[in-house]
From TrEMBL:
Pfam family, one: DUF6880
InterPro entries hit by this protein: DUF6880 (IPR049245)
Taxonomic lineage: Bacteria, Pseudomonadati, Spirochaetota, Spirochaetia, Spirochaetales
Protein name: Uncharacterized protein
Amino acid sequence: MVMKYSRDNRRDKLIDQGIEVLADALLDLAGSSDEADDLIERLIASPKENTQRFKEKISDLKRFSCSIDWRGAAGFARELGMLLQDLKAGVEDPLTGTEMAASFFEADSAIFEICDDSNGHIGDIFRFDAKDLFVDYASRCADKDKVVEIILKVNKNDDYGIRNILIDCARECLPEDAIRQMISTLQQRADKENEEHDRRHHLILIESLARQIKDAKLFEQTRIASWGKLSTAAFIDIARVYLESGDVEAAHSWLKKVSEEETFQAYEREKILLEIYERQGDSEKLTEILYRKFKSFHSTDTLQALLDVIGHDRRDEVITAEVTQILKNETLSTSDAGFLIEIGKIKEAEEYLMERAGQLDGNFYGSLIPLAENMESEERHLAASLIYRSLLVSILDRGYTKSYPHGVRYLKKLNKMAKYVDDWKNFNRHVEFKKQIMQNHARKHSFWSKYEEKK
């Protein structure tokens, strides 16, 4: 087995090789790797040359005529990342860096028009690499008025929905007075627009800025100006911003506008309500929501959240009552079975699964496999066998050849566990089950050949 060195050890050993050896190795690598070649060019170039390289690459992008499909998007994203590294290596002046980082965002149409970004690789370069570089320069730039001007210029249009990133990170590089200046300009732009779509574009940017400076009243007014009649989502958004700004009562009053029967964004609404009741010290309402969350989805996390409020001394009481309810429910819930295992109720989990074995559906392998493995590790071989049977039958029924290796593994497990099951209760013994699947799927030669190979 070849020993793998840690990063620090590899670094030390490379340094020991000497400058000439490393230089030759890099040049050899550059002969077969465009990325390595680009790295060398950046390392040996002066700051002025790296700046020029960045400008030339941006210009090349705007003249690029080829098309890049989704398979080439990751490689193209790496090229864009290296382009930004050229800028970082070439520009020290914060204002110049801010302007040039902004020019990358202004190349969005050239970039997205030539590339299929179905996997989101290119978008991530804008959202993370380019944004972080812009913030780094802009936060160090003394002329904040100029930074405001640059952000507003870039966001005059946003056909690809990516330039608003510079609005969303404004608070990371601008003081509140500069942001309010931006808001004023954006409001003027909105007032001048004749097209509703264009007007709303500016108002959405104002919403982002209002939220960043925690001006909930402005956020509320802007949302109303943008949409008029407000939806459930708007009530929740406004409540969230009021809560973030510290006005708990206003947040609560906005949430009350949402009907309790409303299911849209119920999770978000409940999340905000929890924080409101916590800040208000309303343990009764807090307990009510946490109980509801726990009952709707049993997990150690929802249990822990409930016990944190009502007291951990009530753990046994809560668990006993809920286990009773779980066992009364005739419908199989894999999450409930998993919860029983998590809290150490292995016997109850075993009984729960066996009594509902007819509902096991191997198509839902993602939730069944952990249950099977847990039952197996706890030596509950009959319960584990019933789950593995459902997984195996699902694979054979679908005839999904790529999953045959898994099916073979499940059958091997069944063979092994059968030796430890003394009482099959009302279920077919393993010999009978195996005979049945061999008859039903006798023509699936590919599966049985793989099974015979592993014997």
